[in-house]
Amino acid sequence: MKSSKSKLLHEVAGHSLLSYAVSAAAAVQPQRVVVVVGHQRDQVEAHLAEMAPHVTIAVQDEQRGTGHAVQCGLVDLEDITGDVVVTMADVPMLAGDTLVDLVATHREAKAAVTVLTARLDDPSGYGRVVRDADQRVSEIVEHKDASEEQRRVSEINSGIYVFDAEMLRSGLQEITADNAQNEFYLTDVVSVARTLGKTVETHQIDDLWQTEGVNDRVQLCRIGAEMNRRILERWMRAGVTIVDPATTWVHASVDLAPDVTLLPGTFLEGATSIKAGATIGPDTTLVDVEVDERATVSRTQGSLSVIGADARVGPFAYLRPGTVLGAEGKIGTFVETKNAEIGAGAKVPHLTYAGDAVIGDGANIGAGTIFANYDGVVKATSYVGSYSFIGSNSVLVAPVTVADGAYVAAGSAITGDVGAGQLAVARG
Q1: Which of 106, 203, 251, 350 is catalytic?
Q2: Coil, helix or strand at residue 354
Q3: Strands 15-16 and 11-12, how do they pair?
Q4: Count of alpha carbons within 13 Å of 335, Cβ hemisphere only?
């Protein structure tokens, strides 16, 4: 990846590669999940502590091949019997259902080893599944060790398996590093199983993307595009209108209701949720934002905010964390908000900074109004009451309260409280 960050922490559709692997593994309801870490282990361990604290971490100090990695993982599984699923941490499109089906095939065949396979038009780089005259698996040969005849085989090893635990332990004791890469190949356990007369089964899948690994930024981009295409297709089939899928990106964790419309250039990330009838875009990025029914958000960047039903935001608005806009409220052109509670029907139409502000229902904030919330040392909050009016080009110097129904004349610098229904004129 040519990165200071572990490959497994790079993201696709808002989640790390490793998180997809842990999620897929959870589908088989395992007794234990073991993640083998080696290169950049500190980063990976910290990520797991936050993302999946239930997993067991095994350390592979020297990277001596897949067989050696599994040996390291088995150290903490001495008491385990039955099935052991071995999967990869860099195949983010592997579905949990595929692992469930793989285990089912393994158990039905009463196999010692079951290999997840696929057939590729161009299998270059993959290990080949070599079969005997009776079409039984005889061995798996890595690409670098394969003969010309074996390289013509189109069936590839995905690197994902189910093993009988006893067979896995005994097989790992038999393998050697006598190969082109001088590594211990997990695939050699398949040959050991056949030599011992054990059943080796395969489970072939047609969805080739589920076997696609990530080794560089090009592959990361390709998989990200395919995953996004599938996410968008799923939402469109669920009743969401996406005008231009080519320019729309939605994270896997986003929730959309039927009759939502996404216009071109929309990016929805994190825990963003959009309710029925809302329209987002064009050219809008929302991260961890809740948008209620029938709201409209145009050419806006927002994070950690809440937008009420029938509210209007944008164009060219910037919603920073802590923004809460009430039902039928408005945040308009070139408005920036932060830690701002804006009541139902209140309007902040244009050219305003509202930081650390509480604005009541039906209030109107004129163009060019500044909520001056920082004195150079601490930040303070300004309160604007319901149905009050703040004239254009005014400054509210926090902490200050403008009570319900008050009127602040245009161009005023308010440094003291304004009572309910009062008129304030403060021009220096």
Answers
A1: 350
A2: strand
A3: antiparallel
A4: 27
Domains of the chain plus CATH, in order, are 7-211 (3.90.550.10), 239-424 (2.160.10.10)
Write the single-letter amino acid at 121: D
Q: Specify whether the CB–CB gap between 188 and 65 falls below 8 A.
A: no
- Report the alpha-carbon distance of residue 2 to residue 164 in Å, rounded: 37
Contacts with 327 (C-beta within 8 Å, 6 or more apart), sequence order: 292, 308, 309, 310, 311, 344, 345
The identity of residue 193, as a single letter, is A
Instruction: Collapse the DSSP code of 384 into the 3-class scheme (helix H, G, I; strand E, B; otherwise coil) and give the result.
Output: strand
153-197 pLDDT, tens digit per residue, is 999 999 999 999 999 999 999 999 888 789 999 999 999 999 999
pLDDT attached to residue 31 = 93
Give the residue carrying structure tokens 């308010």: 414
Which of 181, 149, 214, 148 lies closest to 66, judged by CA? 181
Q: What is the pLDDT of residues 388-401, one digit of tens each?
A: 999 999 999 999 99
pTM, whole model, 2 decimals?
0.93
Structure tokens at 80: 């385990």
Does 47 participate in catalysis according to the annotation?
Answer: no
Evaluate if residue 428 carries a pLDDT over 80: no
Q: Tokens 């067991």 correspond to what residue?
A: 56
Tell me which DSSP letter residue 216 carries. Answer: S
Quick one: residue 159, left, alpha or beta (phi over 0 = left, psi -120 to 50 = alpha)?
A: left
Residue with tokens 């830690």: 339
| 4-47 pLDDT, tens digit each | 999 999 999 999 999 999 999 999 999 999 999 998 999 999 99
Which helix (H) or strand (E) is 42 found in, with range? helix 41-51
Confidence of residue 320 (pLDDT cuts 50, 70, 90): very high
Query: How far does CA 157 lie from the centroid of its chain?
Result: 27
Q: How confident is the model at residue 415 (pLDDT cuts 50, 70, 90)?
A: very high
| CA 156 and chain centroid, separation | 29
The rounded distance, in Å, linking the Cα atoms of 59 and 266 is: 41
d(CA 2, CA 245): 30
